[in-house]
Amino acid sequence: MSKTKFELDRKGVADLMKSGNMQKVLKGYATGIRNRSGAGYEQDIYVGKNRANARVWADTPQAKTDNLKNNTLLKSVK
């Protein structure tokens, strides 16, 4: 049995986590969650210090009430 040494390229991983391709993947997931949630929900993609991030939130008062009563966003994540 051979001993293999694995060294992670941290810069490469950081670049991958911030890349345009990763943002496209996140946008797809966020769009799906927003569509399953219904009207009044919004989404956003932004690049942070370490990685790209996606968020979906209740934007209108009706959506906020719906989310509080039914946990709509949590159920939409699947």
SSE layout:
Blueprint: H1 10-18, H2 20-37, E1 41-47, E2 52-58, H3 61-70, H4 72-77
Antiparallel strand pairs: 1-2
Give the DSSP E fraction (strand runs of 2 or more residues).
Answer: 15-25%
Mean pLDDT across the residues is 95
Helix content: 55-70%
Biggest sheet character: 2 strands, antiparallel
Please identify the structural class as seen in this structure: alpha+beta
Number of domains: 1
User: Mind telling me the C-alpha Rg?
Assistant: 18 Å
Instruction: Give me the count of strands.
Output: 2
For the terminal residues, how far apart are their CA atoms? Answer: 42 Å
Written overview of the protein:
The protein has 78 residues and is an alpha+beta fold. It has one domain (10-77). The chain contains 4 helices and 2 strands, in the order ααββαα. The protein has helices at 10-18, 20-37, 61-70, 72-77; strands at residues 41-47, 52-58.
Primary descriptors:
two-stranded antiparallel sheet, alpha+beta, 4 helices, 55% helix, 78 residues
Provide a brief overview of the structure.
By secondary structure, the protein is of the alpha+beta class. Helices cover 55% and strands 18% of the residues.
